[in-house]
Design a protein that fits this description.
The chain is mostly helical. It has 2 domains: about 90 residues, Alpha-helical ferredoxin (Fumarate Reductase Iron-sulfur Protein, Chain B, domain 2, Orthogonal Bundle); about 70 residues, no CATH class. It is built from 10 helices and no strands. The protein binds iron/sulfur cluster (2 copies). One iron/sulfur cluster (SF4) binds next to helix 5 and helix 6.
Amino acid sequence: MAETMVKAPAADVSFINEVCSIPGGEAINSCIQCGVCTGSCPTASQWDNPPRRVIAMVRAGLRDELLSSNSMWFCVSCYSCTVRCPRDIKPADIMHALEIIAIRSGKSTKQSRTPIMYQCFVDSARGNGRVYELGMMIKLFLKTNPFSALKLAPVGLGLLLHKRLPLTPSRIKGMSDLKAILNKARELGGAK
Ligand code: SF4
Ligand code: SF4
């Protein structure tokens, strides 16, 4: 299906500046709207607005519409777009910059569990210095759809039997160093 073009309203550069201020978002003004990123993206058919259009929407200042969509949350970080972009833009990084802005702004989509999964992942890593998979997955299922855990029960059981899924969390040494790194990442624009 052909993508529809985004008609730019009167210049609103605040959203572009917001994206540019987050590491990874700086190059957005170099985009020539060639569409190679959309053509390379394995999940584009699921996006409300595929990658090329996402970039056009940022430049058109369509902040609320874009941040409330499912678009960037369907990025699976395969980096096909990034290696193929003729302007050396990193669309995947722009998608992650938009995810950060969406979280900060309290925007959400019910079409993807990714925002909740990210938060569960970060909470787990922040608490122990490494991800405690069992605890993270239980939290994720409780916050989304507990019944969907049943589908993964055989996988979890297999991992437990092969001692690949610890029942209790373990904490790394040097938590204070890790916290300093996480705090710095937050200072640089990372989500909480
Ligand atoms: S491939 Fe690069 S230049 Fe082309 S539309 Fe995507 S981001 Fe823009
Ligand atoms: S990194 Fe994300 S946006 Fe880029 S091609 Fe892969 S899924 Fe699509």
